[in-house]
Amino acid sequence: MDTLKGFSVPLTPLGRSPLAMPPPWHYSSDCLVIEYWADASAIAAVLPPGVTADGNSAGRAFFWFLDWQFTASNDEITDPARYQYREAFVLLEALFEGQAVNYCPYIFVDNDAAIARGWSQGFPKKYGSIYQTRSLSAPGPAAAPLASGSRFGASVSAHGERLATARVQLRANVENPATVFNRPTVMRRYFPQLAAPLRQRPAPVDELTMSLTDNLAIVDVWAGSAELSIPEVRGEELHALAPLRVGQGYRLGMAYSVTDLRVLRNYSKAGG
Amino acid sequence: MDTLKGFSVPLTPLGRSPLAMPPPWHYSSDCLVIEYWADASAIAAVLPPGVTADGNSAGRAFFWFLDWQFTASNDEITDPARYQYREAFVLLEALFEGQAVNYCPYIFVDNDAAIARGWSQGFPKKYGSIYQTRSLSAPGPAAAPLASGSRFGASVSAHGERLATARVQLRANVENPATVFNRPTVMRRYFPQLAAPLRQRPAPVDELTMSLTDNLAIVDVWAGSAELSIPEVRGEELHALAPLRVGQGYRLGMAYSVTDLRVLRNYSKAGG
Amino acid sequence: MDTLKGFSVPLTPLGRSPLAMPPPWHYSSDCLVIEYWADASAIAAVLPPGVTADGNSAGRAFFWFLDWQFTASNDEITDPARYQYREAFVLLEALFEGQAVNYCPYIFVDNDAAIARGWSQGFPKKYGSIYQTRSLSAPGPAAAPLASGSRFGASVSAHGERLATARVQLRANVENPATVFNRPTVMRRYFPQLAAPLRQRPAPVDELTMSLTDNLAIVDVWAGSAELSIPEVRGEELHALAPLRVGQGYRLGMAYSVTDLRVLRNYSKAGG
Amino acid sequence: MDTLKGFSVPLTPLGRSPLAMPPPWHYSSDCLVIEYWADASAIAAVLPPGVTADGNSAGRAFFWFLDWQFTASNDEITDPARYQYREAFVLLEALFEGQAVNYCPYIFVDNDAAIARGWSQGFPKKYGSIYQTRSLSAPGPAAAPLASGSRFGASVSAHGERLATARVQLRANVENPATVFNRPTVMRRYFPQLAAPLRQRPAPVDELTMSLTDNLAIVDVWAGSAELSIPEVRGEELHALAPLRVGQGYRLGMAYSVTDLRVLRNYSKAGG
To answer: Which of B25, B27, B28, B259 to mutate to test binding with chain D, by most D CBs within 10 Å of its CB?
Structure first.
């Protein structure tokens, strides 16, 4: 009889060591987001089966930087050394069965619990070092208030190589963020087989999934001018999605809870 | 038609970004190992179904610290910023279907590629910071040669908390390491389901596995006296396996390749 | 003729590589502060010549955790990977020539530019890993709003060992923070001599200094209940200042600029 | 009466917390070294007063990567989490009063104690992340033995930006390393003044110094072919010393002790 506890490895007697315990998982974040356009064929090349580039988007993508705070059922909010984390990812506008979606091909975090929760959803997280300028309440040249003219920077690095650098200068408040952020995010949930006799068969977990966000709140949205660079780095393919053109930059707050996941397609089954 | 490449996430057009590409994976390491005895009931409590404490072992366990070098088919050996890593784990002497095995309940690494490869085998890796004294060739008080009287230290921390600290003083060369290191390692390979309607069903991946090591080489084995402490840390259960008694310390080199994995039992199928 | 630029090492032709360029330096921070009482003789033991324990304070001390944002004259605010940093320090209530001051014996930061600026002022900074719960604008269980009942945590670690852990639960806004934070901070500015013939002579830099803060702003001050632990760690003496009793916890914003430093006493001169 | 102990800050009652205690300091290291030629005018531009480019060198420089082990009088060798560290620096061939020397304009380490000891000597250390391929004793594709054909890589990054990447393939053992490594290293020891009324006067510490290494041992020297790249990075000037041409690569072991420092010139005195 198996009495070990945990949503993720390691499964343990008391459920304190697992990287993740079962949801609900609660999140709140500051976000710096850059709208840009990438090469449409590079976007098509990274999409999984059944997901296609959105012709109306002409290569539109969003690069996100996030300063996350996480809590669940065990007072994680008061243990920031383990549960506060930073993240960067790219979203590509795409279509699935006619629905406008965002697909997440690359994502970086600086926290192992975030990797475990992310992989369980389909976010293909790797380890990175992420920073963004914060907006602080004590006034002065270092405060970066939410006000016209304020400047923010952000970056993501992995293993000591800079993968992306962004800058945003705020211009105006956005009254209706739904005009900008309105597509659901789909991902590929994947876990491999290592046993040699089975490696030619479909992976045990290979699904197209959709992120489900309860109680989504998007607040304090500001827009402005933006810069974004994604240099070529050996051992990474992110630069294939480098900007051909950069659109607006956004700075916003976002919160939601996760309790569920939608499986859109199981690639491991026949016809995947 | 799916042409994306990768053994692990992220699957990509060129196979450069995935945390892992398919094996063979080649490893070489310096190792500091402490033999010790833990509470037998604490060992029993962390073992998965079908694995039982080895009554003859009376709680015997080994705490390993490793300075790994990894390479595969893409010249990883010349990219140490991405592929060199450090690891610490505990092995518990146990039985599976009458066979003497070591079970690995906890393991820490400082590298994301090592997490991806590890999870695919069943090693329940979390992120940690690991150090061990090295034996360097240039002589002097800082060299720690492989010689009687040399002293080595090692430690593993996670999220800024020290999980284990060890010290070893070498006494003599061990001619036949097979007398010490002779049990295969078994692990629990596990990947969860997040979709709410499916969470009551068995996890999609839940297996008892055995590590397979090709071309295993264990060299330059020295033994000596040892100290080991595993303090209690909030958010971890490792200290349940703290030493009641410490045996010998070992310092050795180990190399092998991984191309396969043995699945001993599939817990997700009926009767698991 | 020396045309190299820089306030700190390395001095360079263009003044881009130096860890610090000349002030003004601008700072803004979120702060979590714990009032506590330490052993009065342990406080006395760490004070420099001419600084004495404040008998009226009975061992009162403050443990600070700070999430800093820094900028100067080169757009540092948009380069958070280099210039955003976290800090933790202890302040001890003391007297200097009859004036009530705070003395800073220990301080940890996670950034090398902050070490360079800090040493130049007299802050004896070492490298550490510091975290504090943030108050985010997007509402939900992970937001920690500035409101009665909100809970915050903070910690500082060095080299994988936890040096201090704190928790605060907010109760009420503090209308007049000057009742709490009203002593100037004094430090010991010290830079050694290594040349053997000169090591018996006074160090080339050994001064008692006072931090000067222009345009000081302290905002959004909340007080509440607090916990603080400072465990004993090998290789550190911080635990000699562990709490005998814990007072209130505070959460606040603080900003100021640095352009100058007051030298209170030069210990290197006769009679130091 | 001042009874506080320490070679560096923080000065403390017991001398356990200081980043450095007085020498002797003992070092041993694995080293990967790349000989190259930089722009001679860029070299001249970074040299301090009295040090001139060596016309016979035509811009010759060496880029070093080091995996250090350190110990002193307090058993530091068994505390690798605090005292083992990695370093990278560039040495420029130069002349001082007719003597052939190497000047060190840039150096990066991943350890705060190494920063404190380095600054006291004149090494202008900043924080970086450094890696080099190791030569391990357990044989296999991941071992990188000291043998003809073995390949090594190395890199240094700061704040998530790659500053230099090197690769070396060994060809042959070097019998007499003195033909390669035979110049003393000179540095600029500098500590600034922050007090505004004094900032126009010479810095309190501004000296040209020479590193003194007791019991220097250079062992197991191999030479081979080499690659080196030093890309331009915002906020750094290292790339001004990028290679115009790359010479040989070396892999060696080096050990020495430090007990003293030679002051060649005091720039703070008249005529500096």
So the answer is: B28
Alpha carbon of D231: minimum distance to chain A alpha carbons (Å): 11
* ipTM attached to this prediction: 0.96
- DSSP code, position B53: E
Give the residue on A whose Cα is nearest the Cα of B22: A194
Q: Is D78 close to B151, i.e. CB distance below 8 A?
A: yes
Read off the pTM: 0.97
Strands D185-191 and D99-109: parallel
Contact B9 A125 (CB under 8 A): yes
- Sign of dihedral through CA atoms C217, C222, C223, C224? negative
**Contact check, Cβ <8 Å, C11/D190:** yes
Instruction: List the structure tokens of C138.
Output: 């997007």
Mutate which: C86, C110, C130, C157, vs B, most B CBs within 10 A: C157
CA of residue D122 relative to chain centroid, distance: 10
Chains with ≥3 CB–CB distances under 8 Å to B: A, C, D
Helix (H) or strand (E) holding A152: strand A151-158
Say yes or no for a CB contact (<8 Å) between A67 and C134. Answer: yes
Q: With an 8 Å Cβ cutoff, are C77 and A153 in contact?
A: yes
B259 chain-A contacts, CB cut-off 8 A: 196
Best residue in D126, D130, D162 for a mutation probing chain A (most A CBs within 10 Å): D162
Mean pLDDT of chain C: 96
Separation between Cα atoms, residue B2 and residue B6, nearest integer Å: 12
How far D158 CA sits from the closest chain B CA (Å)? 12
Gyration radius from chain B CA atoms: 19
Q: Is the CB of residue C207 less than 8 Å from the CB of residue C267? A: yes
CB atoms within 10 A of CB B271: 7
Average per-residue pLDDT for chain A: 96
- pLDDT digits 0-9 by tens, A45-55: 999 999 999 99
Over residues C205-217, the mean pLDDT reads 97
Q: Do D29 and B138 touch (CB under 8 A)?
A: yes
* Three-class secondary structure of residue B241 per DSSP: helix
CB pairs under 8 A between A and C: 153
Residues C71-107: pLDDT tens digits?
A: 999 999 999 999 999 999 999 999 999 999 999 999 9
| Interatomic CA distance for residues B81 and A161, integer angstroms | 9
Q: Is C225 left (phi over 0), alpha (psi -120 to 50) or beta?
A: beta
Smallest Cβ–Cβ distance between B140 and the set D30, D142, D255 belongs to: D255
With cut-offs at 50, 70 and 90, classify the pLDDT of residue C174: very high
Q: Which residues contact D91 (CB under 8 A, 6 or more apart)?
A: D61, D62, D64, D102, D103, D104, D183, D185
Strands C214-229 and C245-258, by their bridges, are antiparallel
Residue of B120, B124, B192 lying closest to A10 (CB–CB): B124
Question: Per-residue confidence of chain D (272 residues) as pLDDT tens digits?
Answer: 578 999 999 999 999 999 999 999 999 999 999 999 999 999 999 999 999 999 999 999 999 999 999 999 999 999 999 999 999 999 999 999 999 999 999 999 999 999 999 999 999 999 999 999 999 999 999 999 999 999 999 999 999 999 999 999 999 999 988 877 889 999 999 999 999 999 989 999 999 999 999 999 999 999 999 999 999 999 999 999 999 999 999 999 999 999 999 999 999 985 44
Question: How far is it, in rounded angstroms, from Cα D207 to Cα A206?
Answer: 64
- A197: Cβ contacts below 8 Å, ≥ 6 apart: none
b/e map D193-216, b = 16+ CB within 10 Å? bbbeeebeeebbbbbbbbbbbeee
**What pLDDT was estimated at residue B1?**
53
- C154 and A80 in contact by Cβ < 8 A? yes
